[in-house]
Design goal:
Elements (H helix, E strand, L loop, with lengths): L5 H9 L6 E5 L6 H12 L2 E6 L16 H12 L8 E6 L5 H13 L3 E6 L17 E5 L5 H7 L4 H13 L5 H17 L3 H10 L2 H22 L4 H16 L17 H13 L3 E7 L10 E10 L2 H8 L4 H5 L8 H14 L5 E5 L3 E3 L1 E5 L2 E7 L9 H6 L10 E5 L4 E3 L2 E5 L25
Parallel strand pairs: 1-4, 1-5, 2-3, 3-4, 6-8, 11-12, 12-14
Antiparallel strand pairs: 6-7, 8-9, 10-11, 13-14
Helix pairs in contact: 3-4, 7-12, 8-9, 9-10, 9-12, 10-11, 10-12
């Protein structure tokens, strides 16, 4: 199995003090089931996998009363194997197909005999079918395709090399030319392979890009079938039209999604549910414009102005249908590849824990991403060409009165370089630009002695 960062999350959950059920959500084909299956076999004496898609009769486990004793009796009969208290993990896979199983988690967690992980690809779009959410008994964790660092792990890059790159990012030091050139080539490969585990494995095993592309197109078709199967009523055609137009919309000069490009009479309100469906299913990543690039960004969102990125840059390349992969492999990332690079950065920012926002105004111009870190906002530009030091919008924004920013970064083909307040970084170092983790313990106690 490919090494995944999420394995550490599962270990932390298992060893946590007050264990809830862990609900892992994310798009199809990102490796959720494989990861949980491997974790269950490594960490537990007994592992039971229940898949509500491959075995439709599995829903009968939850047909009776939603009491722990009755459900566990049914589970034992279904598994036909001993279930030892404190040493058993039960996976409820594709749990969106059995809403009663999700509702039953409350009683199973309270019972405490076994550990439970739920996994699903379309939980966000089928929430209305659940009559009672297990609030307080379920911990949500969202998974994504492999990020670039995980891709480096898969390709055998040594930890020492990755730590060296991390140090260059943190200390703002130039990467050695040989390492820079090699990691750049791996970055080009990642752009076209993407982070879907099956595609990464094909690449690692065969380095056959043609096989990777064929598999990517199969995944794209699976996503389209999901839209047809699961979207509601008129949303089916709308969501499919939106999904299929993402590559061409990103290829426009300002990348902003223009609804009239797919429907001359389209109105945002009529399409809002379809956009939300794609985002909830994890196949598209919305990036909202903000009224002012100051915190809190979420309260400044203009929900009617946004870019829509693909959840995986490899899938975006495959959807372009223009055989652009071989140009990328040769490092030909001119202005026409700007949308691919911007999608790649958006994908990595989401993996790193950030919400996606950008800023655009007639007065200052457009900044590709504005990123909130605590109560500070960083400005992030992505440049594909050789003129990466031309960024008038970035310069204008830093001179606006009453606006304060943290870092101003340009990700480009250059090595690490600083000029004034602008930090130039190679594209691949985006993998280290991460949200600060919340401390595991943050104890605060008010001294009442003065009362």
């Amino acid at each position: 199995m490919l090494r995944r960062r999420a394995f550490e999350k599962l270990s932390d959950w298992k060893n946590g003090p007050a264990k809830k059920a862990l609900c892992i959500v994310g798009a199809r084909q990102i490796g959720k089931t494989t990861l949980i299956r491997e974790f269950g076999k490594r960490e537990y004496a007994h592992f039971v996998e229940i898949n509500f898609v491959t075995d439709e009769r599995a829903t009968e486990i939850f047909d009776g009363r939603l009491t722990a004793d009755e459900i566990i009796t049914n589970l034992t009969a279904y598994a036909q194997t001993p279930l030892e208290s404190g040493k058993t993990l039960i996976l409820l896979d594709e749990v969106q197909e059995c809403p009663r199983a999700r509702a039953a988690i409350k009683f199973l967690v309270e019972d405490g005999r076994f550990d439970y992980i739920e996994s699903g690809s379309l939980l966000g779009v089928r929430y209305q079918e659940i009559k009672s959410y297990p609030v307080g008994f379920e911990e949500i964790y969202r998974m994504y395709p492999l990020d670039f660092e995980e891709f480096l792990w898969a390709n055998g890059v040594q930890n020492a090399t990755i730590e060296y790159l991390r140090e260059c990012f943190e200390k703002r030091e130039r990467v050695s030319d040989s390492v820079h050139d090699t990691i750049n080539r791996l970055f080009y490969s990642y752009m076209i392979v993407g982070g879907m585990p099956e595609n990464v494995q094909i690449y690692v095993d065969t380095h056959d890009i043609a096989r990777v592309i064929r598999n990517q197109r199969s995944i794209l078709e699976l996503y389209r079938l999901d839209i047809t199967k699961y979207a509601f009523g008129n949303d089916k055609q709308k969501a499919k039209a939106i999904f299929d137009s993402i590559p061409s919309q990103l290829n426009e000069k300002n990348r902003r999604f223009i609804l009239t490009a797919i429907d001359p009479n389209g109105r945002q309100q009529r399409y809002e549910d379809s956009f939300n469906w794609l985002a909830d299913a994890g196949v598209a990543l919305p990036c909202y414009n903000v009224r002012e690039p100051q915190p809190p960004l979420q309260l400044n969102e203009k929900r009617n102005l946004f870019k829509l990125f693909m959840n995986d840059t490899g899938l975006l390349c495959a959807a372009c249908m223009e055989n652009i992969q071989f140009s990328i492999l040769k490092g030909e990332l001119g202005i026409n590849m700007g949308s691919i690079l911007e999608n790649m950065v958006a994908q990595q920012l989401v993996c790193n824990g950030y919400a996606l926002h950008y800023y655009d105004s007639k007065k200052t111009g457009e900044i590709d991403f504005v990123v909130q870190r605590g109560m500070s906002v960083d400005l992030v530009e992505v440049k594909s060409g050789a003129d990466y030091k031309k960024h008038p919008a970035l310069c204008r924004m830093t001179t606006v009165d009453n606006w304060k920013f943290g870092k101003c970064m340009v990700f480009c083909r250059s090595n690490v370089e600083e000029e004034g307040e602008i930090l130039y970084l190679p594209w691949y170092l985006i993998m280290f630009y991460k949200m600060e983790e919340v401390p595991k313990h943050l104890i605060h106690q008010v001294d009442l002695s003065g009362l």
